[in-house]
Amino acid sequence: MTFLIDAWLNELVTKIKNEFADKVVFIGLQGSYKRKEANAGSDIDVVVILNTLNIHDLEKYKAIIAKMPYKEKACGFISGKKEIIGWEKSDLFQFYYDTKPIYGNIDYLLPLIKKEDIKHAIKMGACNLYHACCHNFIYEKNVEILIALYKSAFFILQAKCFYETGQYISSKAELLKQLKGMDAEILNICMNRKSLHTLGESDLSIYADKILIWSSCLLQAY
For labelling alongside 40, which of 4, 73, 74, 136 has CA 20 to 30 A away? Predict the structure, then answer.
């Protein structure tokens, strides 16, 4: 059976609206399907915002997902409206720009996001990347963790590009055209990160070092 994302989303949106009626504020799509970079193993990152959210709403949404075809692909984010308005603004930056509206809109979030919040997103991303790289190298030596670090570098580069140019670029291929130097090298590795599975331990050290140096430079710059 061929998986059709548009048909899947239409079915999910109908079920959500039937279940929650006028409580539904927004439904959107994030991630690789939104960026048109999905492959057969990609998750479907759905965003649902309700007027209010309680544990019974979570139970209802869980039941909806359980009855969906390809339910194993479903993931994403659900929130009440007041909670998302009160969200950490450096996270809200990525949330807003990486979300494609399907029902409703989240434009009321945009005035809440300031340039300093985007700088903070870069800084926190670099902090987390630097710490995770050191921890993995010493205690884990896990290639899957290293691959995940390169995946997360993409989101930092999106924020960095937006901070410097005012341009939010969704796709990795388009973002790469705007980058140079170490930024371009890191994104290139991110885009081909599955190849890291074939590397030996000494080569993995080289790739860990690249992440360490890059995140260190960001910490000093931002």
Answer: 136
